[in-house]
Specification:
The protein is mostly beta strands. It contains one helix and ten strands.
Length: 161
């Protein structure tokens, strides 16, 4: 288990209609040279999303094995492509170079769907995001052979000087 404490810096940003949320967040982080950024909160709406579902493994991370039925995925689906209006109910995760974000979206009937963000999060009206940065830490990702995925590595920032 890796853990560490740190001072906190807070950044707020609003993205507008048509902007792709994941790319916009990564650009924001890069422009400000944030070393240990994470999502504190996000509210808004999107018209598109590409998500990986929980049944993915390191060997099949981006395969589409089933068909969409409306916005609800088939049981075998690992990646879903959504193309309708959704409210962002929750967005959480780390925003280092290889961002690890999960999102929960609600459709027009209030039904929710969530997963690992792969991209195509096109903002509908707004995305108001508050980003935290652990100012004494550095977030990195390294391959974890136990999981088959690049996992979070937390380091004191002083080790990087």
């Amino acid at each position: 288990m890796a853990s560490a404490g740190s001072a906190l810096k807070v950044h707020a940003v609003r993205f507008g209609p048509g902007q792709e949320l994941l790319c916009s967040l990564l650009a924001f982080v890069e422009e400000r040279n944030l070393k240990a950024p994470f999502i504190i909160t996000c509210v808004g709406s999107v018209t598109k999303a590409t998500l990986r579902l929980a049944n993915a493994t390191a060997g099949n991370t981006n395969e589409v094995l089933g068909r969409d039925v409306g916005w609800q995925p088939a049981v075998m689906l690992l990646v879903i492509h959504l193309d309708e209006r959704f409210e962002i109910v929750s967005l959480v995760g780390t925003l280092n170079k290889e961002a690890h974000l999960h999102i929960c979206l609600a459709d027009k009937e209030g039904k929710t769907l969530g997963g690992h963000v792969l991209g195509d999060l096109e903002v509908f009206t707004t995305a108001e995001v508050v980003i935290g940065e652990a100012s004494d830490l550095l977030f990195d990702r390294q391959m974890d052979h136990r999981t088959g995925f690049p996992e979070l590595v937390i380091q004191p920032r002083s080790e990087m000087n």
